Amino acid sequence: MTLELLQGSVAITRAAIAADCRFFAGYPMSPFTPLLEAMSRELADTGGVCINAESEIEGANMALGASAAGFRAATGSCGQGIALMQETIAEAALNETPLVVFNMARNQQDYYQCTRGGGWGDYRTITLAPKDITEAVEHTQLLFHLADRYRAPVILYGDDLLSKTQVGVDVQPLDLPDLPEKDWALDGSASGTGRSRQVWTFAMGKKNDPGPGPDGQWKRVAQKFADLEQVEARHETVHAEDAETLVVAFGSAAKFVEHVVEELREQGHKVGLFRPITLWPFPGAALAQVTRGVRRVLVFEINAGQMIDDVRQWTHDRDAIEFIGGVSIDEHGLAFGPLLDAPVIAERILAAHSPADVLTARS
Amino acid sequence: MTTTDITIDTRTAPPPPSTKAASAAPSLILGEHSLCPGCGEPVALRLLLETLQELDVVDRSIGVVGHGCYGSFVRIMDIDVLQCLHGRAPSCATGIKRMRPESVVFTLQGDGDMVNEGLQEVLHSAARGENITCILLNNGVFGDTGGQQTATTVLGQRTKTSLEGRNAADHGYPIPIADLVASLQGSGYVARGAVSTPAAVARTKRMIKRAVQSQLDGNGLSLVEILTMCPTGWFVPAADGADYQGSSMEPVYPVGELKSQEAERA
Ligand code: SF4
């Protein structure tokens, strides 16, 4: 294994290229911008295409076009930019075009946006939230696979830390199962044969070969997402087996919480971590299992409390839930604020886990 | 009062109906369209499909269709088609063409689609010099939704959202999109045709052919704006549609070539 010191955005770009991403289009918006810059540098070297689009709307639709033509394609932005893309993300879900979206978010306030969407229709987006750059490299490759496998839009929920930090990484191609040929993709070759293809949310088919139509298509898509919910939920636990206090956190925040949980364990506190890796599907059944027998469930996220809705839905004992996160953004509005800090997190966990300990420590 | 004796021969079958129309239909049309009587769009579709056949590019043609009455062409065109969101066709076509440069990629959009919602898409795609062909079916109203004002509605035109007729003070001026696209360096061929008379149809066909040829030659974005009739949206009798278009739209949107590499070379 050879580690190379890479900025997260460059590492993700290399991972996308390793996953055979051939097309990327995006509009600059910090902290997504370094990813767009890395793509524009590196994708062309591999014969791919990167377009600095005129807006997020156009970038997303360019990627949708490239994907409909049968190529692995991606777009990205953050927060407000992803909001502009929601129309296209919904369209991709309903016309079943794979679409990889990199959300290099400013914080964790995009949770609803990623997991509930804002587009039209009975769709969801598979959303992976890596805790660090190494995992983001894996997730990126996995997402291209899942997008093709399910012919659906997928989101990588990154943030400014993943986008801009430099770490030593080794970008290796993941060994993923083969997928069927994209016999649905538009290449023009079927034109004029009576069997020409169609990518369309209404899926009404051609006059001589009717498709399922909107009723059939939308039921099928809804069923696909219902099935997906059963099979693609991923999570990780740390010291959860005997935890009295379980902290639920995702993404970069979970990495900090993990560090704090290890420290508190060394001090003898029975705390643990539950980390949803997929924000949708939310690993609810696993959370219900893990929270059996714990005394407190603490939700730490850098927003006003969004994932806590999903935690509430699945936690065994709802009365045990407490929110210990909050909105905390740096003065530029681009990066995490002072709440994402190990001593602060430790203090908040301890205050809920064993209030007396905190008082003692302060007295 | 006179009576006519009619002798009905019940022993032999009646003659078959005429099949003249069917034999003249281009083979890329899979069935009958469901558009209104007097609509100009089916004529434009036919010209496009005939052109693809005549240029022998059918087996590498990919269409991107927006939203409007012509959206139903998705079902009757024997062409690979992406039906995309309102206005976004040039962006989707960009993604397709960049990945499949050997393909002939065209968009089919109405004026509401291209000039209202998708103005940014078509202008930027033209500015980038995307090697695609955009066909604008301009009837000056939102036909599909029942005749509301679009960005190309001419002054004085009555629509459901400008009941007294479009006036500049309240509704602004119509946008001559072909002129804007022609003014951009990245466009290779731009023309405006009509389908209101047989001569106009023949001329528009030549324009479409030159536009697709321009794409094959790699000259950047080509656009043919085709003035089409929408008697339904205009609330005029179907038979009057062509005349009405000639008198209302064509003075505002003069028909002819606006930009052509051949003209520049000449
Ligand atoms: S409403 Fe207008 S554009 Fe639509 S089919 Fe009828 S005539 Fe054609």
Question: What does this entry show, briefly?
Answer:
The complex is a heterodimer of chains A (about 375) and B (about 270). Chain A is α/β, with parallel strands linked by helices.
Describe this protein's structure.
Chain A is an alpha/beta fold. Chain A has 13 helices and 17 strands. Chain A has helices at 8-18, 33-45, 56-68, 79-95, 111-116, 133-150, 160-164, 213-231, 251-266, 284-290, 308-314, 342-353, 355-362; strands at residues 4-7, 21-26, 49-52, 72-77, 99-105, 126-128, 153-159, 166-169, 198-199, 205-206, 209-210, 235-238, 245-248, 271-276, 278-280, 296-299, 321-323. In chain A, helix 10 (284-290) crosses helix 11 (308-314). Chain B is of the alpha/beta class. Chain B is 36% helix and 17% strand. Chain B has helices at residues 20-24, 41-54, 73-76, 89-99, 111-117, 119-127, 168-171, 177-182, 198-216, 231-234, 241-248, 261-265; strands at residues 61-65, 80-83, 104-110, 133-138, 141-142, 148-149, 187-194, 221-227, 256-259. In chain B, strands 2-1-3-4-8-7-9 form a seven-stranded mixed sheet, sandwiched between helices. Chain B has a two-stranded antiparallel ribbon with strand order 5-6. In chain B, helix 3 links the parallel strand 1 and strand 2. Chain B is globular. Bound molecules: iron/sulfur cluster (SF4). Iron/sulfur cluster binds at residues 35-36, 39, 41, 69, 139, 143-144, 230-233 of chain B.
